[in-house]
């Protein structure tokens, strides 16, 4: 029987190695920060800033900083809501859409190279196994707003996978889910 500790080390080694490969690629597929914002907006469309912070699971102040940088680069627009001036709508510009399209083609190449060693059947099997593992793990995790000490309080901000199933609906473009786990 396989040593489960050794298997877990191999999984984390694979994640670490794939992230290193991404960082060292000619056009790195970045998994955090500005690129995550662009990919969420590309998938979800225009969002209010508070919705975007919730989806990305980051503090509003951190998001404001990211959005300022993206706006300075001409990749997003921030506009006050017509009905409620306290609400800010965030959307991609044409330049932002072009940046996403460019990222998508280079990220597809990177993803294909990561899984080069597996057949389509093996990829399907691996996908099914991770679905089972993630489902089992999700059942054991406390609610996201639950503090370890049992007291209600501020929400914990984890930097990691963008939703259920480690990279679920917001974990990356096309649902590939390359991000860190929420532990």
Automatic annotation (TrEMBL):
<dbReference type="InterPro" id="IPR000835">
    <property type="entry name" value="HTH_MarR-typ"/>
</dbReference>
<feature type="domain" description="HTH marR-type">
    <location>
        <begin position="1"/>
        <end position="135"/>
    </location>
</feature>
<feature type="region of interest" description="Disordered">
    <location>
        <begin position="142"/>
        <end position="183"/>
    </location>
</feature>
<dbReference type="InterPro" id="IPR036388">
    <property type="entry name" value="WH-like_DNA-bd_sf"/>
</dbReference>
<protein>
    <submittedName>
        <fullName>MarR family transcriptional regulator</fullName>
    </submittedName>
</protein>
<dbReference type="InterPro" id="IPR036390">
    <property type="entry name" value="WH_DNA-bd_sf"/>
</dbReference>
<keyword id="KW-0805">Transcription regulation</keyword>
<feature type="compositionally biased region" description="Gly residues">
    <location>
        <begin position="161"/>
        <end position="175"/>
    </location>
</feature>
<dbReference type="GO" id="GO:0003700">
    <property type="term" value="F:DNA-binding transcription factor activity"/>
</dbReference>
<dbReference type="Pfam" id="PF01047">
    <property type="entry name" value="MarR"/>
</dbReference>
<keyword id="KW-0804">Transcription</keyword>
<keyword id="KW-0238">DNA-binding</keyword>
<dbReference type="InterPro" id="IPR023187">
    <property type="entry name" value="Tscrpt_reg_MarR-type_CS"/>
</dbReference>
<dbReference type="GO" id="GO:0003677">
    <property type="term" value="F:DNA binding"/>
</dbReference>
